[in-house]
Design goal:
CATH topology of one domain: Rossmann fold
Strand order of the largest sheet: 1-11-8-7-5-6
Structural class: alpha/beta
CATH architecture of one domain: 3-Layer(aba) Sandwich
Strand content: 15-25%
Radius of gyration: 19 Å
Helix content: 40-55%
Low-confidence stretches: none
Number of helices: 10
Length: 282
């Protein structure tokens, strides 16, 4: 049976570490504040928004939600982000993605000040991931994966890691972060040839493909650590991961669930970024 890598104790530890920093800011008259921007009613975005609002409440961080209709123009979203960027009482902004198809995401992201980009949406934040300097923050989910592994004492040095999923939100930033921790990383995607074999080669398998249940027992060998980053809503409105949990659990040495896995840590990392942004702006 696998060790289940629950995210809640990791998130609780992060929140405890933030308390003194938040208290110090409040003593200076600064109330850390997160703006959440959502365009439309994407189910994944709604789920992330609810999680972020709960995390703000638990961490005693002020939150403000800004919701635009799904048919909004690129210019409307840019105008909102420019207003948020210029508001001194807002320290961080979470732009929920994916955005509706008619919106030019690159232009929208460029309208957000990198110092307030607490989930790695801007080019400046991604540059920070790639070169290690400059304003902005790493996307929260890759940091959450590292926090999960660190909490459970799973080392990366010298390990073979396969990441399934090449997005700028998870896969590519995580590959760089893990390489920086001396892992040997293979970055794959759903069209990679002989993907099951690539997955079985790894000591640590991270799946962020956005395809519910795609990782079956054929993709896993005994003794692996499997981290499921996938979040997909099924027809019944239930949150599902990329890993077929019942099929993989008997094989894996350790396995993160969905929900109650990486997602719980992601919102705690988001709170950490908001506090850091507030400290930087003092």
């Amino acid at each position: 049976m696998s060790e289940i890598l629950y995210g809640t104790p990791v998130a609780d530890t992060l929140r405890i570490e933030l308390r003194s920093r938040i208290a110090a800011l409040r003593e200076q008259g600064i109330e850390p504040c997160l703006a959440i921007v959502r365009v439309g009613e994407d189910p994944g975005s709604l789920s992330y928004e609810r999680s972020a609002l709960r995390a703000c409440e638990k961490a005693d961080i002020r939150s403000r939600s800004f919701v635009l209709p799904a048919d909004s123009s690129t210019e409307a979203v840019i105008a909102l982000l420019e207003t948020i960027s210029s508001d001194p009482l807002i320290h961080g902004c979470l732009l929920l993605r994916p955005l509706p198809r008619q919106i030019e995401e690159h232009r929208v992201c460029a309208a957000l000040r990198p110092e307030k980009d607490v989930d790695g949406a801007t080019d400046s934040s991604l540059r920070r991931v790639f070169v290690g300097r400059g304003p902005g923050f790493c996307p929260c989910t890759p940091e959450a994966v590292l926090a999960l592994l660190d909490y459970y004492g799973i080392p990366l040095t010298g390990k073979r890691v396969t990441i399934v999923g090449r997005s700028l939100v998870v896969g590519r930033p995580l590959a760089l972060l893990m390489t920086g921790r001396d892992a040997t990383v293979t970055l794959c995607h759903r069209k990679s040839p002989d993907l099951p074999a690539r997955c079985r080669e790894a000591d640590i398998l991270v799946v962020a493909a956005g395809s519910a249940g795609m990782i079956t027992a054929d993709y896993v060998r005994e003794g692996q650590v499997v981290v499921d980053v996938g979040t997909t809503m099924n027809a019944e409105g239930k949150l599902c991961g990329d890993v077929d949990f019942p099929a993989v659990e008997p094989l894996a040495a350790a396995l993160s669930p969905v929900p109650r896995g990486v997602g719980a840590i992601t919102t705690a990392i988001l709170m950490k970024h908001v506090v850091t942004a507030a400290e930087t702006m003092t």
